[in-house]
Amino acid sequence: MNKSLDHIGVAVRDLEESISFYTDILGADLIDRYRSEAKGVESEIAVMEVNGNRTELLSPTNNTTSPIARFIKQKGKGVHHIAYRVRDLDKALQELELKGIRVMKETLRVNKHGRRLIYLNPADTGGAIIEYCDYPNQ
């Protein structure tokens, strides 16, 4: 199945400072900013775009349960995940299963932009956090 880079997720401690860096230094546009309190997300997200390429800045809103807070505590701020867009998430998941790659089923969700997403199990990806996503309504 064909894949393309959808976005890179970056864990940050200070969202305002990070937005300023992306806009003032990198020339990015702030496309959207929203807060997600969904279990397993619990973060404020700023979607930045530079020449059509997106980066999501992820700042934890709950330092006890947010996976972003846990990531920063363990590894520090920086690249959290890479998201690949697929044409059909269900078919892509079937292909992964045939190849013995597990997904974290509890992460399957649809975000406010209609992006359906799931994370692959880092134990099967060499430790990298990889998201697969599709946009079924586009």
From TrEMBL:
Keywords, ordered alphabetically: Metal-binding
Molecular-function GO terms, alphabetical: metal ion binding; methylmalonyl-CoA epimerase activity
- Which Gene Ontology terms describe the biological processes this protein takes part in? L-methylmalonyl-CoA metabolic process
Q: PROSITE patterns, from UniProt?
A: VOC (PS51819)
* InterPro entries, alphabetized: Glyas_Bleomycin-R_OHBP_Dase, MeMalonyl-CoA_epimerase, MMCE/EMCE_epimerase, VOC_core
Q: Which residues form the VOC domain?
A: 4-135
Q: Which domain of life is it from?
A: Bacteria
The family assignment reads: Belongs to the methylmalonyl-CoA epimerase family.
Q: What is this protein called?
A: VOC family protein
